[in-house]
């Protein structure tokens, strides 16, 4: 006899992101900054398994050496918050036990926590049979954090507002990355605050609201053409100076990426992960090999774009 979705555990996977472009406007009254960003989803991912339970609980483990010691297991945990929010809004009376397997570095600027929330929404939606659909799940995602809608949608997208208003971008090729992870994470609010501080100290006056201009057009053209060299020339991150100010060793990682032959490099989001672009998959493997001599196991290869949060069929069929 087949088991109903409400009885069988459901596993969902959600991707990490890198920001190909991140333009930061002034700080708003709600503490957020208006952004103009281009996200790309990478094949580093978070798996969340939701199992039937009376109450709500979460456990977390790390894959590939991801250190999960800093991940909270109480109501600050984003996967747990996602499950609680969905249950409340959809009027679900059941609970769920969530088992999170993290393949994305914690506090690395790659939206690992946001991917947990996106995967938990999708897994619990399937577990409870709430079938909210992508538009309603996207609204819940935006309540959970600025990057959660993108982790739900995946692929490549322009983000505006807090980064949560998304428009898909056409891409015609896979792009190959080498990631240099960092031992200690950076706090996203601290990096945004440092960006504000550096701007004020530089006397530049309040930053203008980011506008869809030349930089965005250059990124979109490179993506449409599937041209990694053109993409490398167009990459940009307004938070990079702030991340390097708080973690000066990132400047060295960027330099060693350039010396080792990367097309271009940038800090991913608020950092501290450094993302280096390669011309092809073999080039990415060669680049990673050279960088491992200096940075050891903290060097990973990745590619994008990949899909957003989804139930894993093989697990669902069990
Ligand atoms: O939405 P999320 O919880 O991921 O954001 C974490 C923090 O990052 C925010 O509290 C804010 O300090 C900063 N942030 C921002 N502007 C954005 C996104 C995040 O200032 N657009």
For the biggest sheet, the summary is: 8 strands, mixed
Helix proportion range: 25-40%
Q: Examine the coordinates and then state which fold CATH places here, giving the name of the CATH topology of the largest domain.
A: Ribosomal Protein S5, domain 2
Question: Which architecture of the largest domain per CATH?
Answer: 2-Layer Sandwich
Quickly count the domains. 2
**Uncertain segments:** 1-5
Strand residue percentage: 25-35%
The mean pLDDT is: 94
Structural class, from secondary structure content? alpha+beta
User: What molecules are bound to this protein?
Assistant: cytidine-5'-monophosphate
Question: What would you note in describing this structure?
Answer:
There is one protein chain. This protein is α+β, with helices and mostly antiparallel strands and 318 residues long. It has two domains: 10-169, 2-Layer Sandwich (Ribosomal Protein S5, domain 2); 175-304, GHMP kinase, C-terminal domain (Alpha-Beta Plaits, 2-Layer Sandwich), CATH 3.30.70. 37% of the residues lie in helices and 28% in strands. It has eleven helices and twelve strands. Strands 1, 2, 3, 4, 5, 6, 8 and 12 form an eight-stranded mixed beta sheet that branches. Strands 9-10-7-11 form a four-stranded antiparallel beta sheet, with helices on both faces. Helix 1 links the parallel strand 3 (56-62) and strand 4. It is globular. It starts with 9 loop residues before the first strand and ends with a helix. Bound molecules: cytidine-5'-monophosphate (C5P). The site of cytidine-5'-monophosphate has 12 residues, from strand 2 and helix 5.
């Amino acid at each position: 006899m087949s088991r109903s979705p409400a009885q069988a555990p459901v596993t969902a996977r959600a991707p990490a992101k890198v920001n190909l472009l991140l333009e930061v406007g002034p700080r708003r009254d709600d503490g957020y900054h208006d952004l103009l960003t281009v996200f790309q989803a990478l094949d580093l991912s978070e798996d969340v398994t939701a199992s039937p339970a009376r109450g709500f609980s979460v456990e977390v483990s790390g894959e590939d050496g991801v250190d999960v010691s800093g991940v909270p297991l109480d109501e600050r945990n984003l996967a747990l918050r996602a499950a609680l929010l969905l249950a409340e809004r959809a009027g679900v009376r059941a609970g769920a036990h969530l088992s999170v397997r993290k393949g994305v570095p914690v506090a690395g600027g790659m939206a690992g926590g946001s991917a947990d929330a996106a995967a938990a929404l999708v897994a619990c939606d399937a577990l409870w049979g709430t079938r909210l659909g992508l538009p309603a799940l996207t609204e819940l995602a935006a309540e959970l954090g600025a990057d959660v809608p993108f982790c739900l949608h995946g692929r490549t997208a322009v983000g505006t507002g807090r980064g949560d208003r998304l428009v898909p971008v056409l891409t015609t090729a896979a792009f190959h990355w080498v990631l240099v992870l960092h031992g200690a994470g950076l706090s996203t609010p601290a990096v945004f605050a440092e960006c504000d501080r550096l701007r004020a100290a530089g006397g530049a006056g309040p930053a203008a609201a980011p506008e869809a201009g030349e930089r965005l057009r250059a990124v979109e053209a490179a993506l449409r053409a599937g041209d990694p060299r053109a993409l490398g020339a167009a990459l940009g991150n307004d938070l990079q100076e702030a991340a390097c100010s708080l973690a000066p060793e990132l400047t060295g990682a960027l330099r060693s990426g350039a010396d080792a032959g990367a097309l271009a490099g940038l800090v991913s989001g608020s950092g501290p992960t450094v993302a280096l672009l390669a011309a092809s998959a073999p080039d990415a493997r060669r680049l990673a090999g050279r960088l491992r001599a200096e940075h050891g196991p903290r060097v990973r290869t990745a590619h994008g774009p990949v899909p957003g949060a989804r139930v894993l069929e093989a697990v669902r069929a069990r």
